[in-house]
Specification:
The chain is built from 13 helices and 8 strands. By secondary structure, the chain is an alpha/beta fold. Helix 6 links the parallel strand 5 and strand 6. The longest helix is centred in the middle third of the chain and has 15 residues. The model has no long low-confidence stretch (mean pLDDT about 90). This is N-acetylglucosaminyldiphosphoundecaprenol N-acetyl-beta-D-mannosaminyltransferase.
Length: about 240
């Protein structure tokens, strides 16, 4: 698959908008080879600049979308025309709509007990023809991992949505995608919580103004320490150029 990428702090990001990202995602599904899609934000890009293993996982992924205004800003700062963010939750909705239209099977893995099931119910309401072939929460022990992988493999999904939090979900997919045998594996962070109604997404006007990060910080003050990675990311990008 031909790729047009920009490298930010050593991480390759595909120059895609939502439409092109979905097109490339379907190409991966149709290819049928286990693949990994990452929606990359500034926080994880900064972490990857300090962690060779994480950076390798990102650069070996089959599709990396610009999730977060920080990534969009950094790409534009380097002279690349990235038109919009392509976030994890938007990819979930777009992939589920595609799956409902084309008959692709979807498996939801992650979040707290009961949340994946609730998210599956909500997605079925939105897309009545969606085939969800399985759900499993993310609170499994290391010794249960093989059983979890086996259950996913036996369900034979075309799309696996993994909500284990970044970068844990990225490492999980990278290490096990061949065993899982799923054509498209995507880490989706806290998307199940939002879809299930456990947490609220930012109002539409804040999303349009690229202030979703601020809403999340105000809603969850405990994120403040994590958000301190953002100014460090900006400074590192400026020094990189």
């Amino acid at each position: 698959m031909e790729r047009n990428r920009v490298y930010i702090l050593g991480c390759g990001i595909d120059i895609v908008d939502s439409r092109l990202a979905l097109k490339k995602a379907e190409e991966l599904i149709l290819r049928g080879i286990p693949s990994q899609v990452i929606t990359l934000n500034a926080e994880i890009a900064y972490a990857a600049s300090l962690d060779d293993r994480l950076r390798q996982v990102i650069n070996e992924a089959d599709l990396v979308t610009p999730d977060g205004i920080g990534i969009v800003w950094a790409a534009r700062h380097k002279g690349y025309d990235i038109k919009e963010r392509v976030t994890g939750i938007d990819m979930v909705y777009n992939l589920c709509q595609l799956a409902a239209n084309k008959g692709y099977r979807v498996f939801l893995l992650g979040a707290s007990p009961g949340v994946a099931e609730k998210a599956a119910c909500e997605l079925k309401k939105m897309y009545p023809y969606l085939i969800i072939c399985g759900t499993r929460d993310g609170y499994f022990r290391e010794e249960e991992k093989e059983e979890v992988i086996k259950s996913i493999r036996e369900a034979r999904p075309h799309i696996l949505l993994v909500a284990l939090g970044a970068p844990k979900q990225e490492f999980f997919i990278s290490r096990h995608k061949e065993e899982l045998g799923v054509p498209l594996c995507l880490g989706v962070g806290g998307s199940f919580d939002v879809i299930a109604g456990v947490k609220k997404r930012a109002p539409g006007f804040m999303i349009r103004l690229n202030l979703e990060w601020l809403y999340r910080l105000l809603s969850e003050p405990s994120r403040f320490k994590r958000q301190m990675a953002l100014p460090k990311f900006v400074l590192k990008v400026l020094r990189e150029k």
